[in-house]
Amino acid sequence: MVYTDPYTPNENKRTYECRACGHRETTSTSIGFCPKCHGAVLNIGVTRE
């Protein structure tokens, strides 16, 4: 029986979160600012310590 790992990230999509308003945007291209408030965004798919 073959199992699919539900936690495997989609390599073509990245999720960004706005540091100002908390809006999340999933896209296949890099974004430099939040489409809602134009605040700075952070790629939340990247592990940080």
Number of strands: 3
Strand order of the largest sheet: 2-1-3
User: What does the overall shape look like?
Assistant: elongated
Overall SS class: mainly beta
Order of helices and strands, N to C?
Answer: EEE
The number of helical elements comes to 0
CATH topology tier name:
Rubrerythrin, domain 2
For the report, how would you describe the main beta sheet? 3 strands, antiparallel
C-alpha Rg (nearest Å): 13 Å
The helical percent reads under 10%
Q: How much of the residues is beta strand, in percent?
A: 15-25%
Mean pLDDT: 84
Query: According to CATH, what is the class?
Result: Mainly Beta
Give a topology summary:
Elements: E1 14-18, E2 24-27, E3 41-43
Antiparallel strand pairs: 1-2, 1-3
